[in-house]
Amino acid sequence: MKREHLLWLLTTNAGAAPLLQWGQGSNFHFAGLRFGMDGNFKISVFEDLHFGEPADVGGPIADLRTIGVMNTILDVEPPNLVVLNGDLITCENVATANVSDYIDQIVEPLKSRNIPWASTYGNHDMSKTCSTRVMAEREQAVGGKLAWTKMMVDGEYNEVGTSNYYVPIYASSGGGNPRLAMLLWFFDSKGGRAYQQTDPDGEDVPVADYVDQKVVDWFNLEKRAIAQQHPNQPIPSLAFVHIPIHATWTFQHGPNMNSATEPGINEDNIGHQGISCDALGKNCYWNKKDTPFMKSLAATEDLMAVFSGHDHGDDWCMKWASISGNEPPNGNSIHLCFGRHTGYGGYSDWTRGARQIVVHEDSLRGGEREVETWIRLEDGKISGHVVLNETYGMDRYPPVEKTTSAPISGEGKGQAV
Ligand SMILES: *[C@@H]1O[C@H](CO)[C@@H](O)[C@H](O)[C@H]1NC(C)=O
Ligand SMILES: *[C@@H]1O[C@H](CO)[C@@H](O)[C@H](O)[C@H]1NC(C)=O
């Protein structure tokens, strides 16, 4: 990347404020956001930002470039909500006292544009020095009404994590008392390391990498309660979780994965929830601990798609219809998607970008529910534009073009900016 280009990225942050609406009427059962007056709800997913990497792999330069990516994309694609889908910070290297400062840097492009956001946390956010509960509190303290990150499931930090919650999205019409039109679910797949704990040998204590049974129990209870409050009115939903479920791995290694029907980058052997390894970190296998979560997702009527990050070299979507080698094999045709690696911290050299998701309010009311989604790249191009509808997985799309971002200068990266 040329110096002029870098400067351009760093200074492009003066975009128009997006149209924002959220419900504040006294009749709301629960605070939420609202479909825009154009009948759309648009989400930009920033994942794997990996702020706070050590200087020898980019450090502050990487963070500045990441802020440039966020600014560029928010100006081109002003959304109704940003989802920070895990690994906001590479927290292994960050001092406890410095975590707030990174959160402030990450949310600044959102605050300055008045864009609400909601986070899920990733395995790199949970470290010996960083608590995701502290991160959530900081988001709320600096974001006020813009920060939708919550903790709705109480329990041991190492079991339930932090970012388990939902955000209701209300209809654009209906004045001060609109109908509940959609739900966004957020789950904490944990992983990483226990906060301020060491084992008897003085080593960090690993945390399991799957959505806990207590969280699944809460999800099941909430779904039932919401269904009772809305008889004969199914509520369509989307879900976000940093580490993907095992069904994505079985699909990737099965006969149906195809660059024409699942367009996107497919360079990582998927790391998924529920992986156990031997003491040396070798001989890893699937321990099936994400099975209760997968069963609950598959049993969620009207769940349209689940979005994950974690695997920086994958950014396709699949239909979870019938996959042998997974439990359950049939995911009720839920779409499972990866996003694009947004941060300059973390591995992979593909052009940075962010998945955009648009839900058309009208499509939710008919039987033909569909979600439109694409990757917006930092160079302004679009990659992998697809429609997640009934025939997704059979529809054919043009192949995704491979482009890469210029490496960060510095030790271990070799090349000058
Ligand atoms: C914390 O931030 C301060 C100020 O930026 C910096 O000088 C210090 O090195 C950081 N500490 C660690 C351990 O990264
Ligand atoms: C799904 O979307 C694709 C792309 O727009 C389209 O070609 C296909 O006909 C749609 N399928 C249905 C059932 O509408």
Automatic annotation (TrEMBL):
Gene3D superfamilies: 3.60.21.10. Residues 56-313 form the Calcineurin-like phosphoesterase domain. It comes from Melanomma pulvis-pyrius CBS 109.77. The keyword Nucleus does not apply. Transmembrane segments: none annotated. Keywords: Signal. Pfam families: Metallophos. InterPro entries: Calcineurin-like_PHP, Metallo-depent_PP-like. This is Metallo-dependent phosphatase. Residues 398-417 are annotated as: Disordered. GO terms for cellular component: cytoplasm. Residues 1-16 form the signal peptide. GO terms for molecular function: hydrolase activity, acting on ester bonds.
